């Protein structure tokens, strides 16, 4: 369990964000995060938040994060956090998402200084920048800088290992990867601006997303996915039973056997809380580990 540092008598500092900008002094001790990516950055700074918008599903928090935090109070859904619960925790810093929380931004500011950043729909590079901003707000800039440097070394190592594996494959062109989530609402491809796609590209791999795409997420039909025809389809299945009905229908489609993922048996399940929900440093490194494991296993199978 992490212990809280004492509040320092540091000078007042101004931290730029997507709202009014944050004016804060010292090191906040009672932090509330309203998105999983913000939890990642706060833990990276060595701080355990007092409140988390965890969708009332603590199992969605990555094990790597859970083991680094102490007891916390759920403040409800990420899309609709409970303001009374937030106020009752007497926070000295709230970290909120521009997309989800802009309509309650003023109310949050009345409770405590509020840092407004982008998590939902943010790119991988944006979230690295956000981690630095959160480090400033927490008075932990140096520590966050060190952790981000270590992250770059880690990602470089994974990229080199993946490059070594893919170089050995007898293929006329690089394999293309596609990540999508599946649920009762359908299949959503995480497109060019999505976190997972940014991580895939950071690792030196190619995506199957059309080059003209400018979205974070897009719902797709079987025909649209078939048009992209990825070499790998990585699916985060939100269906609690383990197989979203839509995936079963896709695999029953008469054109399914013609797809590369069917021929090579390269539609693989991945954890949506890692690939979709968490959107932080720990998640990026786990995605890299997952990809290395999948590609290495495919090499052995060949």
TrEMBL record:
GO CC term, one of those recorded: outer membrane-bounded periplasmic space
Pfam families assigned to the protein according to its UniProt record, in alphabetical order: Peripla_BP_2 (PF01497)
UniProt KW keywords: Ion transport, Iron, Iron transport, Signal, Transport
Main location: other
Domain Fe/B12 periplasmic-binding: 30-299
Cellular localization per UniProt: Cell envelope
Protein name from the UniProt record: ABC transporter substrate-binding protein
Source organism of this protein record: Oceanospirillum sediminis
């Amino acid at each position: 369990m992490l212990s809280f540092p004492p509040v320092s008598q540091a000078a007042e500092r101004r931290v730029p964000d997507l709202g009014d900008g944050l004016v804060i002094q010292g090191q906040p001790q009672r932090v509330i995060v309203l998105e999983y990516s913000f939890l990642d950055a706060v833990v990276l700074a060595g701080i355990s938040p007092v409140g988390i918008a965890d969708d009332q599903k603590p199992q969605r928090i990555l094990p790597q994060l859970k083991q680094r935090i102490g007891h916390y109070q759920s403040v409800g859904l990420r899309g609709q956090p409970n303001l009374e619960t937030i106020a009752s925790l007497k926070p000295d810093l709230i970290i909120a998402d521009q997309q989800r929380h802009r309509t309650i931004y003023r109310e949050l500011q009345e409770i405590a200084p509020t840092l407004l950043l982008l998590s939902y729909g943010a790119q991988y590079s944006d979230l690295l920048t956000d981690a630095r901003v959160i480090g400033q707000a927490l008075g932990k800039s140096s520590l966050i800088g060190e952790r981000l440097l270590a992250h770059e070394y880690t990602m470089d190592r994974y990229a080199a290992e993946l490059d070594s594996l893919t170089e050995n494959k007898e293929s006329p062109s690089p394999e293309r990867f596609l990540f999508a989530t599946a649920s009762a609402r359908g299949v959503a491809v995480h497109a060019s601006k999505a976190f997972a796609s940014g991580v895939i590209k950071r690792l030196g791999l190619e995506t199957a997303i059309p080059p003209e795409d400018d979205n974070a997420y897009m719902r797709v039909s079987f025909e649209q996915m078939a048009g992209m025809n990825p070499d790998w389809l990585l699916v985060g299945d939100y269906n609690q039973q383990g197989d979203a009905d839509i995936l079963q229908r896709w695999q029953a489609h008469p054109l399914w056997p013609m797809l590369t993922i069917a021929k090579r048996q390269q539609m693989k399940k991945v954890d949506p809380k890692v690939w979709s929900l968490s959107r932080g440093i720990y998640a990026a490194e786990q995605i890299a580990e997952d990809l290395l494991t999948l590609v290495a296993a495919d090499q052995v199978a060949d």
